[in-house]
Amino acid sequence: MKKQELIHLHGLLAQVQHHYESSTDTTVDHDEYDGLGVKPTSIHRSKTDHKEAVFALADGITDDMVATSDDPLTLTAD
């Protein structure tokens, strides 16, 4: 994945996080993500920095989803 594509993905994931927080009226744990200091607008940062930020943001969102879910998640084929 190119750096520009990774930055775009970072921005989209930040929007997903914002939408998730507003729709569930909760706050996702941002400690790991905030500790990196890389935002989608930090275009001067390296590709590796954005990759770490994407993983940290995705982990925070999914961890919160799992913690607040009452039912176990299962995948089914349609």
- The sequence of SSEs as H and E is HHH
Question: Radius of gyration, rounded?
Answer: 14 Å
Mean pLDDT: 90
Largest sheet: none
The unreliable regions are none
How many strands in all? 0
Helix share of residues?
A: 55-70%
Please report which band the strand proportion falls in: under 5%, 5-15%, 15-25%, 25-35%, 35-45% or over 45%: under 5%
Shape: globular
**Tally of individual helices:** 3
Describe this protein's structure.
The protein has 78 residues and is mainly α. Helix content is 64%, strand content 0%. The protein has 3 helices and no strands. It has helices at residues 3-24, 31-36, 47-68. The radius of gyration is 14 Å and the shape is globular. The mean pLDDT is 90.
Structure, briefly:
With 78 residues, the chain is mostly helical.
Q: Can you tag this structure with a few keywords?
A:
78 residues, mainly alpha, 3 helices
List the topology elements.
Layout: H1 3-24, H2 31-36, H3 47-68
